[in-house]
Amino acid sequence: MGVLHRIATPPLRRLTARVGAKLGGASTPVIFLLGFTFLAVLPAPTFAESVSRQATGAATWREEALALEHGEGIAKNPAKAAELYCKGAKAGDAEAHYSLAWMYMNGRGLPRNDAWAAYLFKQAAGQGHAPSQKMLAFVGEPSADPPECLRQPNDQRLPSNSEDWGFSDEKQRRLAALISRLAPEYGVSPQFAYAVARTESNLNPKAVSPKNAQGLMQLIPDTSARFNVKKPFDPEQNIRGGLAYLRWLLAYFRGDVALVAAAYNAGEGAVNQYLGVPPYQETRQYVKRILAAFPQREHPFNPAITDPSPNMVRIAKRMGKATQ
Fold first, then answer.
1. How confident is the model at residue 31 (pLDDT cuts 50, 70, 90)?
2. When you count CB atoms within 10 A of the terminal residue's CB, does the N or C end of the chain come out lower?
3. Pick the catalytic residue: 63, 64, 69, 200?
4. What is the DSSP string of 254-310?
5. What's the rounded Cα separation, in Å, for the pair 254 and 313?
6. Rounded to an integer, what distance in angstroms lies between the CA atom of residue 97 and that of residue 62?
7. What range defines the domain where residue 215 resides?
8. Is-catalytic flag, 200?
9. Domain boundary at 116, 133, 148, which?
10. CATH number of the domain enclosing 293
């Protein structure tokens, strides 16, 4: 590992140190060690680096968890680290899934559970996280259910302003639970997805707008075709289509929640045209409602999904934001 430390750039030195610490167990097979010696020289995922620089949202929880897990400048507290990694995983952060999987696989501060570790690696791998994709070759079958910390009673999965987002019946509650279950598969925060669904259709899987937007996530026929939704009035297909679109928009607009919400309502073309939230009253009110229900301006994203908008530099300049 000393050679890797000498040749690594500063970000990679930190990754190498983390891998070294996690490979320190005497029971680790040699082939496993060799696999991760190779991983240590890979670049860190671009989205993890960019969100970490902003030190917001899931990245902040992950950085704090990392310090608590390894005792970097503070006393070790694996239980608290796992709690924070879990919080980041709920927000769709692939790195948090990855780190929590390591803790379960090594029994570090948590009871060892290989099936849950495999579940978490699989979730991160589905977001394009390269180290997790490699880990799938070394772990067994994933659990059918997520770790306990990711399971929440339905009423705890709702936005905090429950007086504005209550359910009218048990059917809406079940649909919200379905959104909460599916959203992490697409790297989308369940609360963000719920806010979009609630704003779009009031959780009505049979809703049709004057513009022929259909179903719970209000997909127009072109969007349904784009994301392979064959039955737009089937709740699960419709939710999956909406989540796939949100995942794409998050990558296209580099995790900017306001731009993603505006594009979901008015189309990414309108956001590109106006270099930000379009001046349509409907769209501006829509964005306000989403941000009220999901008060985070940045969301983790997977840059492997698509290239950024060609206008991102101009949009960032107009909005007074630093480009990444």
1. very low
2. N
3. 200
4. TTBHHHHHHHHHH-HHHHHHHTSS-S-HHHHHHHHHHHHHS--SB----TTS-PPPT
5. 11
6. 10
7. 152-319
8. yes
9. 148
10. 1.10.530.10
